[in-house]
Design goal:
With about 120 residues, the chain is an all-beta fold. The protein is built from no helices and three strands.
């Protein structure tokens, strides 16, 4: 039987995945055969699909009760995971995974190259 308030698998309203790409390139030849190439490349995506466990304890909820929870700064391991169960919203259940389009990504890159070559093209 699912936890109270959940009837089947929660389904989020779908949103259109949006991706924006951009590039800017600059090249210049300086005197004495010096060449400079600079490029900026970037992308941003929104509404990426991912999985979220809606039965996770709230952040730091298990560190606020001295002697009962897990001390602050301690890594969560298999040995202390049972102590987290008392801080989950739906007691007695493990992970309740929901697929949601709430994730984003971004990428930014500045690439440069400086080279010295001869001004003449030789065959």
């Amino acid at each position: 039987m699912p936890p109270r308030g959940i009837r089947g698998t929660p389904v989020a309203k779908t949103k259109l995945h949006i991706r924006i790409n951009g590039a800017w390139i600059w090249q210049h030849e300086f005197p004495a055969g010096w060449n400079v190439d600079m490029g900026y490349y970037g992308s941003k995506s929104t509404h990426l699909i991912g999985i979220i466990d809606i039965n996770m304890p709230l952040p730091a909820a298990y560190t606020t009760t001295p002697g009962i929870g897990i001390p602050a700064g301690t890594f969560v391991t298999g040995a202390n995971t049972p102590a987290l169960k008392r801080y989950t919203p739906y007691k007695g259940y493990s992970a309740i995974n929901s697929i949601l389009p709430i994730f984003d990504s971004n990428y930014h890159s500045l690439q440069t190259q400086v080279s010295k070559g001869s001004a003449e093209i030789r065959n």
